[in-house]
Design goal:
The protein has about 290 residues and is α+β, with helices and mostly antiparallel strands. It has seven helices and 14 strands.
Length: about 290
């Protein structure tokens, strides 16, 4: 690994921390001791070149989905995750970068050794790999900048969920919407990441005076969003405003669920939560609101 990269076992002795620039992974594997060690060695070896590979093809990754063809393994994962949305939405492969990196490391680990399960957490976007009979306990947060659990979920191997991702205007990346957080469960982390971006964008109140926006490229000159207006602040909203914005996002999430692109979603805004799919059974009743049907 290069001098700029971080590689260390965390104090608990079980988890691995891998860091390189914007990529920050917490990796954990379960299984026989020698299998875990082999999986961690494979993760370290693969991680060593991922950021360099992505940097080489940044122009293709920042271009609108379908406009250019990435060549790296992670770039290809990113492109595949956003491809289903290319005809209907503005989206670039960068919308799936965190999830795709997590998927790459998780798949390398399970290919290297017979693990019972593993989890790769890339800043809150998580790739899960569970063998039959295994499960994973997941804590769900309603604001990534001030994390507090609103529910816990147990994902079983039989659920077919291999990825969890969260997006919103308070997160690491820019958002066109006003969701505090949108959490998506999907077949893999890259697909969850892409869908979370679009559902979070849909939670919105276009033209509302309480919402401050700015061109993405004025805040980050190389942003893949160009001059599109991204959310920089959300003021006081009425309950009707909150419900209207969440309902817009919920309709988008239902569309993606019905098409088989996601398995579940939880949408949060100003202390209110709406859920679909399996998560409808998990949100605490006093924090939950549902659309009919």
């Amino acid at each position: 690994m290069s001098a700029r990269q971080t590689l260390r076992r965390l104090p608990d002795g079980r988890r691995l921390h891998l860091g390189d620039g914007p990529i920050d992974l917490i990796v954990e594997a379960w299984g026989a001791r020698d299998a875990i060690e082999a999986a961690y060695q494979a993760a370290v070896a693969r991680f060593a070149t991922i950021l360099d590979e992505l940097c080489v093809e940044l122009p293709a990754l920042r271009a609108r989905a379908g406009a250019a063809a990435p060549q790296s393994p992670v770039g290809l994962r990113m492109a595949r995750a956003v491809a289903p949305y290319a005809a209907s939405y503005f989206i670039t492969p960068m919308a799936a970068v965190a999830g795709a990196v997590a998927d790459e490391i998780a798949d390398v680990m399970t290919a290297a050794a017979p693990l019972a399960r593993c989890a790769v957490n890339n800043g809150g976007d998580i790739a899960l790999r569970l063998t039959p009979g295994e499960s994973f306990a997941l804590g769900l947060v309603d604001r990534p900048d001030k994390p507090s659990l609103f529910a816990r979920a147990t994902i079983d191997a039989e659920d077919g969920i291999g990825g969890v991702a969260t997006s919103g205007w308070r997160g690491r990346s820019f958002s066109l919407g006003i969701a505090d957080a949108v959490t998506i469960l999907a077949r893999n982390a890259a697909e969850a990441d892409a869908a979370a971006t679009l559902v979070a964008n849909a939670v919105d109140l276009p033209g509302h005076r309480a919402i401050a926006r700015a061109p993405a490229d004025a805040l980050q000159p190389d942003s893949d969003l160009g001059a599109r207006l991204v959310t920089r602040g959300v003021g006081a909203l009425s309950q009707a405003d909150i419900d209207a914005a969440l309902t817009r996002g919920l309709e988008k999430a239902r569309e993606f669920e019905n098409s088989g692109r996601i398995r579940a979603a939880a949408l949060h805004l100003a202390g209110r939560t709406m859920t679909i799919g399996a998560l409808e059974r998990l949100a605490a009743p006093e924090r939950r609101a549902h659309a009919a049907g």
